[in-house]
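We now fix the convention by which a protein and its fold are recorded. The integers have meaning only within a learned vocabulary of local backbone shapes. A complete example follows; check for yourself that the lines match position by position.
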Amino acid sequence: MVKSSKALIYSLRSMSGLSTALGVGFIVWGVVIQDPPETAITIGMVILGSLALFVGLWGLLISILGRCCMAVLLLMTFLVNIGELALTIRLMVDMDSSVNSLVENTMESYKDNAQAAASDVADKGNNPDNGRRLLQARKTKEELTTEFTNDLQYARYIFFVLALIEFILIITTLIIMWKRPHANGIDGDEEDQLAAKSTMAQIQLEGLKSSVSPQNGGNGSLYSTDKKSYRSVTKKMTQKYGEFSHDSAWSNSGKKW
């Protein structure tokens, strides 16, 4: 099984976690501004939030279970993020048009509700006090403008910064996936095999050191002829490299291969 590098896993989790948080944030923001969402700005917030929440949870799942369809995930996250940036930039550049749209939509809903209440009184004989209470609960155009402006004024900057951070994390994840997708730059199976070979080599090296150590009965020479296994090794090395050795103990003994 292919193992993803830790850098890729951490980057993916950061990106997905922020996408999930932004998704929830956009949905709540849209509903707080207008419930139910009826204008382009609030509907766009809810749609983008839902998509961001979906890709964020998908990314968290991939970071836990392993690399699967990561290219598709990054593409979807990138597209959703571009939508988030476009929406927040539009609010920063031209917030007044969005506020006016919200105010006009709310005033239209006031008229529709008033007409519906009057129709109920005329057709069904309902209590006219219900219509009066409805009219009293209406806000003026100036009050609505102030309310919607406050809802958008500071939140747009916060969401823009978070969306920009998410964009940076997407690019970072893409670079890591391209440059260092696997642990130690190799597949998981190869990594396990190399680790096993390294452990075995270390054990053999320790055994070799122990066998030639004077404390364990050896003569301190790597090419000691006291053991049959090492005489066989030295014989093969002699056949390959000739009668020469850098081992001082062997050279000083005056022995030959």
The chain has ten helices and no strands. Residues 59 and 212 are 55 Å apart (CA to CA).
